[in-house]
Amino acid sequence: MAASAIESATPSTDASYIPTHSRNNPDYDHEIYGTKTGIHRPGCGLDDVMLSWGGDEYSYHVVKEQSTLLSETLAMIRYHSFYPWHNAGAYRYLTDEKDDAMLDAVRALNPYGLYSKSDAVPNLKELKKDLIDEFFPHKLIK
Questions:
Q1: Residues 33, 49: Cα–Cα separation, whole Å
Q2: What distance, in Å, lies between the first and last C-alpha atoms of the chain?
Q3: For the chain, what is the HEC assignment?
Q4: What mean pLDDT do residues 13-20 have?
Q5: What is the pLDDT of residue 43?
Q6: CB atoms within 10 A of CB 96
Q7: Which range among 77-86, 106-115, 131-140 has the greatest average pLDDT?
Q8: What is the pTM of this model?
Q9: Beta bridge partners of 6
Q10: φ, ψ dihedrals at 8, nearest 5°
């Protein structure tokens, strides 16, 4: 799985792993997209940046409207693969106070990410349906 990256801005010099950006990217030398902050203003907060589209970003957009999950949990989902930010400290010039508060939660999830998954398909009957019902009140699982 590729790491998430901020689109429409050049890679942070603090980032050690940004697979989606290189000199081959047509936006690399763009007068706006090719700048440090791109279309974003400094301190705008990660809620206002465009992240590369992947499983984490997709899941975040699905559950943020369909659940009552805490903001820390939503941050864990969205920024889980945003390694340049939570591992390397990159893009700090775009973050705000909310992001600073969410960082510990995102880092707490990190050990359970890549390489910690099972090939076994979960048995939905064994899942804690009461927790699913609590955080997804629209009865996604019947």
A1: 12
A2: 31
A3: CCCCCECCCCCCCCCCCCCCCCCCCCCCCCCCCCCCCCCCCCCCCHHHCCECCCHHHHHHHHHHHHCCCCHHHHHHHHHCCCHHHHCCCCCHHHCCHHHHHHHHHHHHHHHHCCCCCCCCCCCHHHCCHHHHHHHCCCCCCC
A4: 54
A5: 96
A6: 14
A7: 77-86
A8: 0.75
A9: 51
A10: 60, 30
- Encoded amino acid at 36, one letter: K
The answer, yes or no, to whether residue 18 has pLDDT greater than 80, is no
What are the backbone angles phi and psi of residue 139, rounded to the nearest 5°?
A: 50, 65
The 10 Å CB-count burial string (b at 16+, else e) for 98-126 is ebeebbebbeebbeeeeeeeeeeeeeeee
In angstroms, the CA 121 to CA 134 distance is 23
In the chain, the amino acid numbered 96 is D
Compute the distance between CA of residue 4 and CA of residue 69 in angstroms, rounded to an integer.
22
Do 12 and 91 touch, CB atoms closer than 8 A?
Answer: yes
Length, in residues, of the chain: 142
In the block, residue with structure tokens 């973050």? 95
Q: How many CA atoms lie within 13 A of 96 on its CB side?
A: 11
